[in-house]
């Protein structure tokens, strides 16, 4: 009974908040502009506070850098293999290759991992997302943007990378590896800083899940291409996930949190950031359907992880 209650206490808040997001859309309780404003608050205030607190207080090592490099290489590889699978599965849309690549950390992964394992362990997942982001923003998003613009300047690429979230991660890592983080935490100022950062990051999980629920739409879904793309992505990420899991287990045999971080990373849906540069109409409907189906798979996977971890 205790085990069941523990699992439900993790899973039900996720389901309830997503359901509230879906209800908010159906009943017009929140407009699309309102959702966009919530996303802005999350990406510019809540998540940066959460990530800075996560990294500046973490004990990072040279092995931690290997996790970032590994995920960087894997994300590049999935893009190449995604292009091959797009041809093998006869997926018509060019965006299909992108949907077989990348993970959604900021707008879903951080919330789910924190709910299950706590903020103090979030860096185990965030390191993997950092490697993913180093491919996603300068390479993948730039390629997508070039479909609609003649050229993208270096300044534009730099701006896409220098987000508040990435800046807070970089600042947190620098403070941690220089030893300044432990010095700060040993003082009264550290206690106050932690209180401020924790308070600013507290709404993150609930707001993210409401946003995710709001975005789960299945109107006019091109099911044939959607299912083929989802199957292709599941195959690619299951294979690479198993490989990364074995490597991470060898690097950190005594820290299961890295293994949970790996599992959580490889059940995430593709990046929601792709929607910024989609063409209106059929492509947008197709990508939205793939993201929605993959998000549901992520929630199911999260429930299985929660059942085994709690």
Describe the structure.
The chain is built from 14 helices and no strands. It has helices at 2-26, 32-56, 62-88, 95-99, 105-117, 123-145, 154-161, 164-177, 180-185, 188-201, 204-214, 223-251, 256-266, 282-309. The protein is globular.
| Helix/strand order | HHHHHHHHHHHHHH
Q: How many strands, what sense, and barrel or not for the largest sheet?
A: none
Total count of helical runs of at least 4 residues: 14
What is the rounded distance between the termini?
Answer: 13 Å
Number of DSSP strands? 0
Task: Tell me, rounded to a whole number, the average pLDDT.
Answer: 92
The secondary structure category is mainly alpha
Specify the helix fraction band. over 70%
Low-confidence stretches: none
Task: Quote the beta fraction.
Answer: under 5%
CA radius of gyration is 19 Å
Give the overall form: globular
Tags for this model:
single chain; 310 residues; mainly alpha
SSE layout and pairings?
Layout: H1 2-26, H2 32-56, H3 62-88, H4 95-99, H5 105-117, H6 123-145, H7 154-161, H8 164-177, H9 180-185, H10 188-201, H11 204-214, H12 223-251, H13 256-266, H14 282-309
């Amino acid at each position: 009974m205790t085990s069941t209650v523990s699992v439900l206490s993790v899973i039900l808040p996720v389901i309830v908040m997503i359901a509230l997001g879906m209800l908010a859309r159906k009943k017009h309780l929140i407009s699309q502009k309102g959702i966009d404003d919530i996303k802005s608050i999350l990406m510019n205030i809540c998540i940066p506070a959460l990530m800075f607190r996560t990294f500046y207080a973490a004990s990072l090592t040279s092995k931690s850098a290997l996790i970032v490099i590994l995920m960087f290489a894997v994300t590049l590889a999935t893009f190449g293999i995604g292009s091959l699978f797009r041809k093998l599965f006869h997926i018509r849309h060019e965006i299909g290759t992108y949907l077989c690549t990348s993970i959604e950390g900021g707008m879903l992964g951080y919330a789910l991992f924190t709910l299950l394992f706590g903020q103090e362990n979030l860096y185990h997942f965030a390191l993997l997302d950092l490697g993913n982001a180093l491919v996603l923003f300068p390479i993948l998003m730039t390629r997508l943007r070039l479909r609609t613009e003649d050229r993208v300047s270096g300044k534009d690429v730099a701006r896409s990378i220098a987000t508040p979230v990435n800046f807070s991660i970089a600042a947190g890592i620098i403070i941690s590896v220089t030893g300044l983080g432990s010095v700060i935490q040993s003082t009264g100022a550290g206690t106050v800083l932690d209180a401020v950062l924790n308070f600013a990051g507290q709404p993150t999980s609930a707001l993210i899940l409401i946003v995710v629920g709001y975005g789960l739409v299945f109107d006019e879904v091109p099911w044939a291409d959607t299912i083929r793309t989802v199957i292709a992505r599941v195959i690619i990420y299951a294979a690479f996930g198993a490989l990364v899991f074995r490597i991470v287990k060898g690097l950190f045999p005594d820290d299961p949190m890295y293994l949970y971080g790996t599992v959580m990373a490889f059940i995430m849906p593709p990046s929601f950031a792709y929607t910024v540069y989609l063409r209106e109409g059929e492509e947008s409907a197709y990508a939205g359907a793939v993201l929605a189906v993959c998000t549901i798979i992520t929630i199911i996977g999260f429930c299985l992880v929660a059942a085994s971890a709690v």
